[in-house]
């Protein structure tokens, strides 16, 4: 068998090492959290659902997979939400300032007036925070609306798009956190960006955490239900598609 030239041997060794590294790297290295409903409500830090509201897990075996059902009964003005994310090691994720996060999920609501379906909620109470909720998303009037809420409770509508109740919609939300006002927001529904904001203060005094579900609403005479599936957290939009 002929001997390889020294340069050829080096090239083959480097190529083999590179191939090994590629094969050893996970396909989704930046996925931080998989909130698959099949894992149950333990994927949240906690659930906030005043009785008789309920958070349950279901699966219609229609190919869509498992989902969370956030159920706020007719007449209720309270909330039914999943708060924060819990990692497989049992710890809640440690959010950071000056970092980019992407959330992805599918949502279907019972009505076009489900109220608040997502909050980037500030930690602390009363004078411990300056914004309370820098980012809010609501389903009302048959539309999905997104707000950036600046200090001083200044509500700034950054996007609005039609929302069909009783149908699944995919959502991706990107937040670059910043306590100094250099943050950004990008929100997609069904593959189309409908809201964005730059130069935003997206990190409050004690930090922030996400919430999904249903809160308040413009029509409390009807049950408010938000089905949520496929929850993910990553560092790029591709991670959570």
From TrEMBL:
It comes from the Bacteria. GO terms for molecular function: lyase activity. Keywords: Lyase, Signal. Residues 1-29 form the signal peptide. This is Polysaccharide lyase. It comes from Streptomyces lichenis.
């Amino acid at each position: 068998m002929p001997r390889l030239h020294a340069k050829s041997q080096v090239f083959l060794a480097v190529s083999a090492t590179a191939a090994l590294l590629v094969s050893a790297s996970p396909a989704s290295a930046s996925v931080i959290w998989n909130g698959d409903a099949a894992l149950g409500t333990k994927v949240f830090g906690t659930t906030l659902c005043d009785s008789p509201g309920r958070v349950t897990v279901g699966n219609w075996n229609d190919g869509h997979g498992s989902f969370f059902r956030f159920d706020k009964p007719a007449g209720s003005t309270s909330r039914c939400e999943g708060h924060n994310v819990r990692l497989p090691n049992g710890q809640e994720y440690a959010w950071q300032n000056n970092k980019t996060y992407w959330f992805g999920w599918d949502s279907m609501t019972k009505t076009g007036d489900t109220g608040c379906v997502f909050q980037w909620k500030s930690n602390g109470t009363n004078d411990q925070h300056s914004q309370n909720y820098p980012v809010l998303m609501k389903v009302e009037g048959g539309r999905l609306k997104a707000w950036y809420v600046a200090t001083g409770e200044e509500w700034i509508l950054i996007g609005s798009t039609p929302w069909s109740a009783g149908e699944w919609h995919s959502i991706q939300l990107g937040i670059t956190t910043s306590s100094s006002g250099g943050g950004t927001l990008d929100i997609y529904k069904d593959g189309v960006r409908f809201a964005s904001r730059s130069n935003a203060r997206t990190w409050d005094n004690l930090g922030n955490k996400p919430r999904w579900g249903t809160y308040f609403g413009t029509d409390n005479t009807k049950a408010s239900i938000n089905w949520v599936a496929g929850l993910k957290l990553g560092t790029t939009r591709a991670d959570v598609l």
